Amino acid sequence: MNATPRWLDPDEKAAWDSFINLQEALIGRLSRLLQADSKMSASDYIVLVNLTETGDGRMRYLELSKLVKWEKSRMSHQVARMMKRGLVAREECPDDARGAFIVATPAGYKAIEDAAPIHVEHVRRLFIDALTPNQLDTFARLSKRVSDHMEKQPD
Q: Which residues form a coiled coil (predicted)?
């Protein structure tokens, strides 16, 4: 690492501050709306949407953790909370005694089916509708570029 910090110039700082402000405001508002509309946390939603998008509503813990970019312990705690509310179940993996599946329950399917249409309307109203199709394409490409760059950087 360099001894002298590479401080952000005014344009870099403006871009970074704009991104952070957008991210915090958008995620915070969507999370509050999701909770108010469906009594579901954003973490509940991300787990259920990923499970229910699979063919059989099940995923291995590690696979789901990697997909949503969470540490194993965070996923374990989230799943435990959701199991208490009957949204997901844990099933042993017949091929691997150490492995387990997270499975969406009928109550989990019902919760996501009820929440998703309202949530997507908020996403559309607060994010999608603010941009032209060309701007959305550019935003998606820039986001992917930063994500790809991050993957190549050491922690």
A: none
